[in-house]
TrEMBL record:
Keywords: Membrane, Transmembrane, Transmembrane helix. The chain crosses the membrane at residues 12-33, 45-64. This is Uncharacterized protein. Pfam families: 7TM_GPCR_Str.
Amino acid sequence: MSDRIWLKITTVCAQVGFVISTLANFVILTLLVVRPAKALGSYKYLMIIFCIFSLFYTSVETFLRPLIHMYDNTLFVIQQKRFQYSDLTARFISG
């Protein structure tokens, strides 16, 4: 399989994953906030925080579009720019 096809597949899968993750987390957040569930107790707040962090990291991953390559003991993280910003900004965002 060529590199261009593989990049297209990963881009489409990332977009589908973003939509599914965002919808699922908003549904869960809505249910947790709107419906009072006494059976959940303080676990409800943990689930709310988990959903918020999941939405944040999904947004960051969609914004950065990272390509991760592992070879032996080496890990490469390559960022595909969506917008035109400086190299310093790209390094800061990747970090």
